[in-house]
Structures are given as C-alpha cells and as structure tokens.
Amino acid sequence: MTDTAWPGPAELLEHHERMLEALRVLARQFAAVTADPRSKFFGKLHDEFDELLLQMREELDEQTVMMMVASCEATLRIDFDGRLRDKTKDRVRRRFKELRSQYEERVQLDQILDAWREETGEVERIGRLRQLVKRRHWLAHGRYWRDKSGVSPDPRLAGLVIDDLLQALQRCLPDFPRT
C-alpha cells in the first residue's frame, strides 16, 4: 500500500493553525477593518467585532473537524479497497470480502469500522471515532437535527482520536496506510 495523497489529519490541523493565526492578525486590525466601508466589519463596535471573530473561529473548528473525519474515512476506505484488490492475506480481508459481496459498492463506513472492531478488539478507539463521524454527519447534512455525537468541535481532540485509532490499526497490521 502507498502513502496517502490527500491531506491527512495532521495537514488539516496545520491549516487550522494558520487560519487561527489569520484570525488573530485580523483581531489586531480592529480599527482598520471597521473603518473601511468595503469591509464586512464596517461600523461594528468592538464587542460586535469580537463576537463575529468568535463565530468565525467556531465555524473554522467545525469545518476542520469535518474535514479531518473525512480524511480518516478516506484512509479507511482506500485501505478497504486496497485489501480487496491486492488480495492481502490477513484476517481483516476475509471480513471485507464478506461485506463487499453482501453490499457490493455500498459498504458503509460503520460496517468497515465494525469489521475493524471485530478483528482488532479496538472497541474504545473505534467508539470515539464513531462519535466524530456522527458529528461530521450532523455538520455535512446541514445541522438541521439535534447533534447527538456528544463531542465538541475541537480539532486538536479530533486529531488525537483519529491518530490514536490509525496508529492502533498500523500496529495491528503494519501494511495499513500511514497518514
């Protein structure tokens, strides 16, 4: 299996840090941006400006978590497809073959996670990722229902959860892709 070509959780977290730095720079420019009639912040009071920056930060956190979980899903799905295509001789492939024959091209992420849980015993780690997946679904589908994920939109925490699971899978099967 080859290294990933898509941005992994670490790269997405790095992007998040650069965006936070941009928000800090913007915060220091309060007088300039609120005096510029072309700015969306034109005429805002300091408290209003701070509230808008806080909303931007919260949305950035949500977007970053959503993309980190999507990146993790890509890693899991590419590994899934690769194990089937390359005919690896490991215990997970057997379960993946059953899923593919049962669901064809519509194997859900939950089913892939179930297979990993059954084969590795990583119940807690996979459970924490499932919470993030619920959060991602809630975000990706417009937030129109009550969020039941039980997790906050903290990109650093999401990164730890994802990294912890992926490292556990790599320890279990050394050919698991590195992100």
Descriptive overview:
- It is built from seven helices and no strands.
- The model has no long low-confidence stretch (mean pLDDT 91).
- It has helices spanning 9-28, 30-35, 46-86, 91-103, 109-120, 123-140, 155-172.
- The protein is elongated.
- The protein is an all-alpha fold.
> Mean pLDDT across all residues, rounded?
91
SS content category:
mainly alpha
- Distance between termini? 12 Å
Categorize the overall geometry.
Answer: elongated
Tell me the number of strands.
0
Q: Count of DSSP helices?
A: 7
Summed up, the domain count is 1
- Portion in strands: under 5%
Residue stretches low in confidence (pLDDT < 50, at least 5 long) are: none
H/E series, N to C? HHHHHHH
- Fraction of residues in helix: over 70%
Radius of gyration: 20 Å
**What about the largest sheet?**
none
Helices and strands in order:
Layout: H1 9-28, H2 30-35, H3 46-86, H4 91-103, H5 109-120, H6 123-140, H7 155-172
Features:
179 residues; elongated
Summarize the entry for a quick read.
It contains 7 helices and no strands.
